[in-house]
Design a protein that fits this description.
With 198 residues, the chain is an all-alpha fold.
């Protein structure tokens, strides 16, 4: 009887240890994948911040040549201000509504910058300005980086979400409190209207 009880106890210990190791393995993979998502998000924030930093210089340069385009310049300044007010945090990538709000503010800034660059076409002296050309080149590069970093973020989020939803990973994720990550979505304007090129 004691021998059977020891065998049962030994089997239970092995099952508990194996379960704990499996749980720990899945948990560690979730942590690693979440860190990849957080790193990708940090890069998205970085390139958006770079764009926010370029806008005041661009507005000041245009203002010197096109002072009577006050409404357009004010729209860019307001859009930048609104984009800067929305603080992105790790919670943003766990909440599709927060990410959509962040993306909406960034889209408004992109749109106002596009309108500003259309206005610039009327001013040949401005278009020839070395300062403006340098800023325009930096802005174009930043917009390209934004696209790339958003794509990388979506790929990392997809990888995390797919792993999180698999069985038995879903159980570990639920117990440990891991949430799905939100994705950047294509803008409605981008789906229906041609984009103004920087």
């Amino acid at each position: 009887m004691k021998k059977a009880l020891l065998v049962i106890l030994g089997v239970l210990v092995v099952v508990v240890v194996a379960g704990a190791l499996a749980f720990g393995g899945v948990y560690n993979k979730l942590v690693t994948k979440e860190e990849v998502v957080n790193s990708a998000w940090a890069q998205v924030e970085n390139v958006y911040q770079r764009r926010l930093d370029l806008v005041p210089n661009l507005v000041e340069t245009v203002k010197g040549y096109a002072a009577h385009e006050q409404e357009t310049l004010q729209n860019v300044t307001n859009a930048r201000s609104k984009a800067a007010q929305i603080t992105a945090s790790p919670a943003t990538i766990n909440d599709p509504a927060l990410l959509a709000k962040f993306q909406e503010a960034q889209t408004a800034l992109t749109s106002s910058l596009s309108r500003l660059l259309v206005v610039v076409e009327k001013y040949p002296d401005l278009k020839a300005s070395e300062n403006f050309l340098a800023l325009q080149t930096q802005l174009e590069g930043t917009e390209n980086r934004i696209t790339v970093e958003r794509m990388r973020f979506n790929e990392a989020a997809m990888n995390f979400n797919a792993f999180r939803r698999q069985f038995p990973n879903a159980i570990v994720a639920k117990v440990a409190g891991f949430q799905n990550k939100a994705y950047f979505q294509a803008n409605q304007d981008a789906k229906t209207a041609p984009q103004v090129k920087f």
